[in-house]
From TrEMBL:
Domain (Topo IA-type catalytic): residue spans on this chain: 163-598
Stretches assigned to the Toprim domain: 3-145
The protein, known as: DNA topoisomerase
Enzyme nomenclature, EC number: 5.6.2.1
InterPro entries reported in the protein's UniProt record: Topo_IA, Topo_IA_2, Topo_IA_AS, Topo_IA_cen, Topo_IA_cen_sub1, Topo_IA_cen_sub2, Topo_IA_cen_sub3, Topo_IA_core_domain
Enzyme class, first EC level, given as a word: isomerase
GO BP: DNA recombination; DNA repair; DNA topological change
Function: Introduces a single-strand break via transesterification at a target site in duplex DNA. Releases the supercoiling and torsional tension of DNA introduced during the DNA replication and transcription by transiently cleaving and rejoining one strand of the DNA duplex. The scissile phosphodiester is attacked by the catalytic tyrosine of the enzyme, resulting in the formation of a DNA-(5'-phosphotyrosyl)-enzyme intermediate and the expulsion of a 3'-OH DNA strand.
An example Gene Ontology molecular-function term: DNA binding
Keyword Transferase attached: no
Alphabetical keyword list: DNA-binding, Isomerase, Topoisomerase
Reactions mediated catalytically: ATP-independent breakage of single-stranded DNA, followed by passage and rejoining
Length: 614
DNA sequence: GCAAGGTC
């Protein structure tokens, strides 16, 4: 029998594929690593003996050689071309040992890492380690897009090859980020510490993700600073009339369809025209069904955005809690870009686990009947992990863990239910006569008929508004018809949720790292959190503003604090993946560009000092 | 004392 060594990217995957391929009949061995087990079983479909194990993310690390690793060993500019060595860090040595000894006993190595760029690269790292103990080992790659029995069996029986181009793209980015990070971090730190020895003792780091992140915070701050409120005018119209049923009056408000007018003279002339014949006539009454859609399945970025907004927790904190709940078996894998469930996904067994809860159990029970509807499908699929969902009932949690679990569970149940349904009434009105003076107004009413998902997803609000009773042709004299003045309001400073959204939209960081980059710019004192009421806003420090403003003077396309340069790196990685460029070409071109940026940046420090001393 | 990306 052929002996096959299967290596997954993380413990949860090795356990899951073992469960599926072995049909539950397997033996477990410990390894030198606390959290990694080796599983053995026969796989008769390919007449093989399987051992399944895993790594924990990347196996190797890169650093500069000894001649350049020390901070004052060289001019930072030399780091663009200094030799780089690859090592296995100490906390990964036990994993390496396990792979080497398992590979010795196997004829075939089957890579089961996630099917993305990083997964191909981790796969290559695994291959290199295994070949050192077994140079003859045959390498295969299992290709799967979800942990579903049929797919996993298919992957085991029809393996493909590792994709070297994808691994190369990751390698190029790794090297580039190390060179840039080190060169610019040392440049910034040396210069600023020398100029402000009293104020700046700590590291002034640069990173191709942390700087665009900082850039967003500074850009919004400057918009707020530069904001000047502008007055505008609009016609306000309302009708107060006695209610037909009980005592009291109702006030029906009408919105002017022209919106806001920024010139007082123009607004006043229109208003005078209306006042010559203010009798209002109902031109149309529309009554129609309307819906409020239930939410999409939950991705990591969405979890962090909504969690920050609704639970008021830092994105990093939310991800840490989700990670812990995942380790404890309560949640599915918390780092996913996927907002669509696989058609074969087993919703009912997961819903059944929630029926015991005192708060949402009754709702879950209804989803076991005709309350259920298959979730909407979003546009994203990382082909590795399903949307975040509860995998077991957790009744004992307290504090923030309870709140995060509750949010994820309510969100999952809401996804599996029907849209809220309502009845909307639109009253169109014209006032000011029938000639050029006439102006259009509108009033909206809403009756919520079926709350459906809203009953469990208590974070969404959808409230009814009394429907005014009008018929086409009705006429009335408005109780109030006046020209009102308003003022434009300043944009808000960024919240963490806003920043997560901007980073996601601009491709800065990944689902797993976005929260870390935000934490980094706070730790480095480029940004502070300011509480206003219950909301936390991000405010840049003088140092943060100085760095961004200084670099922005280099020009938009090359500024280190704009998303463009990172987008370019990302674009080149895609080209390497598609074979349109080699790893070497990507590196050479990027390094040359950043050397140019470096020289320009070095010339900006007087500007940066100036802002920082103000 | 430098990065970003995986993951524990």
């Amino acid at each position: 029998m052929v002996r096959v060594l299967c290596v997954a990217e993380k413990p949860s995957i090795s356990k899951a594929i073992t469960g599926i391929l072995s049909g539950g009949q397997f033996t477990t061995r410990n390894t030198g690593s606390n959290f990694i087990k080796n599983y053995d079983f026969d796989y008769p479909r390919t007449n093989a003996r399987f051992t399944v194990t895993c790594v924990a993310g990347h196996l190797t690390e890169r650093r500069f050689d000894d001649a350049h690793n020390k901070w004052h060993s060289c001019d930072p500019f030399a780091l663009f071309e200094a030799p780089i060595v690859t090592t296995i860090p100490n906390d990964k040595k036990a994993i390496e040992t396990n792979l080497r000894s398992e590979a010795r006993n196997a004829q075939t190595l089957m890579i089961w890492t996630d099917c993305d760029r990083e997964g191909e690269h981790i796969g290559m790292e695994i291959v290199q380690v295994c070949r050192r103990s077994n140079p003859q080992i045959v390498v295969k790659r299992a290709r799967f897009s979800a942990i579903i029995a049929a797919q996993i069996h298919n992957a085991a029986q029809n393996p493909v090859e590792l994709d070297r181009a994808q691994a190369d793209a990751v390698e190029a980015r790794t090297i580039l980020d190390l060179r840039l990070g080190a060169a610019f971090s040392r440049l910034q730190t040396f210069n600023l510490q020398a100029r402000f020895p009293q104020q700046i003792q700590e590291l002034v780091s640069y990173g191709p993700c942390q700087f665009p992140t900082l850039g967003f915070v500074v850009a919004r701050y400057e918009q707020v600073q530069a904001f000047v409120p502008e007055p505008f005018w609009y016609i306000y119209m309302s009708l107060t009339r006695p209610l037909s049923s009980d005592e009291g009056d109702e006030v029906v408000e009408f919105t002017w369809k022209r919106g806001n007018i920024f010139e007082h003279g123009v607004a006043f002339v229109i208003y005078e025209g209306v006042m010559r014949d203010p009798l209002a006539r109902v031109t149309k009454v529309t009554r129609k069904e309307t819906k409020k859609w239930c939410p999409l399945p939950l991705t990591t970025v969405e979890l962090q955005k909504s969690g920050n907004r609704l639970l008021r927790l830092a994105p990093k904190k939310i991800l840490d809690i989700a990670e812990k709940l995942y380790q404890e078996g309560f949640l599915s894998y918390p780092r996913t870009e996927t907002d669509q469930f696989d058609p074969q996904f087993d919703f009912q067994s997961l819903i059944a686990k929630q029926t015991a809860d005192p708060a949402w159990g009754a709702f879950a029970t209804r989803l076991q009947g005709d309350g259920f509807q298959a979730p909407r499908k979003g546009k994203n699929n990382d082909n590795a992990h399903p949307p975040i969902h509860p995998t077991a009932y957790a009744g004992q949690l307290v504090g923030d863990e309870k709140r995060v679990y509750e949010f994820i569970t309510r969100r999952f149940l809401a996804c599996c239910s029907k849209d809220a349904e309502g009845w909307m009434t639109i009253i169109d009105v014209v006032a000011g006569g029938e000639d050029l003076n006439s102006q259009c107004f509108v009033s909206l009413g809403l009756v919520v008929l079926e709350r459906n998902y809203l009953e469990v997803y208590t974070y969404d609000k959808w409230t009814g508004k009394t429907v005014p009773e009008f018929e086409e042709g009705d006429e009335f004299m408005p109780t109030v018809c006046e020209l009102k003045e308003g003022r434009t309001t300043s944009p808000s400073l960024l919240t963490e949720a806003d920043l997560v959204g901007l980073m996601d939209k601009n491709g800065i960081g990944t689902d797993a790292t976005i929260a870390q980059h935000i934490q980094t710019i706070i730790d480095r004192k480029y940004v502070m959190a300011r509480n206003e009421g219950a909301t936390k806003y991000l405010v840049p420090s003088t140092l943060g503003i100085g760095l961004v403003e200084g670099y922005n003077k280099i020009g938009f396309e090359r500024s280190l604090s704009k998303p463009q340069l990172r987008r370019e790196t990302e674009r080149m990685m895609v080209q390497v993946c598609q074979g349109q460029r080699t790893k070497g070409e990507m590196l050479a071109e990027s390094i040359e560009k950043y050397q140019d940026v470096y020289v320009r940046a070095r010339g900006q420090f007087n500007q940066i000092y100036e802002v920082c001393s103000s």
